[in-house]
Amino acid sequence: MNRVAFLFTQAPHGSSAGREGLDAVLATGALSEDIGLFFIGDGVLQLNRDQQPEQILARNYIATFGVLELYDIDQCFVCADSLLARGQSLTAERVLAAEVLEAASLREKLASYHRVIRF
């Protein structure tokens, strides 16, 4: 069975990439048992717990990350370098439990997946 990685690289608001990525994860979760989520660059902002999308009249899909547990999707990784570059805490609570990895370790883990889908 193919291991599928979803790479989130865009901020949560301003485009539909985050929502589309989450939809793709959920659809793939019904078909595959080995899925990993990776958050790098502006994608680390997807995991901020205190987002208020209604303030900018954006659709709130962030809470949907909570249903990933129902699909047994629990391999989630976030780039420490990306967090620090955006002034984010390495230890802050996030909308999704994710292991914080240095960039080199994250790349190594990502390389172990057969397919990588970027959003």
Automatic annotation (TrEMBL):
Entry keyword set: Transferase
Top-level division of the source organism's lineage: Bacteria
Alphabetical list of InterPro entries matching this protein: DsrEFH-like, Sulphur_relay_DsrE/F-like, Sulphur_relay_TusC/DsrF
EC class (word): transferase
Keyword Lipoprotein included in the entry's annotation: no
Protein EC: 2.8.1.-
GO molecular function, one term: transferase activity
SUPFAM superfamilies in UniProt: DsrEFH-like
Keyword Transferase: yes
Database matches in PANTHER family: PROTEIN TUSC (PTHR38780:SF1)
Record-stated family: Belongs to the DsrF/TusC family.
Protein name per the record: Sulfurtransferase complex subunit TusC
Name of the coding gene: tusC
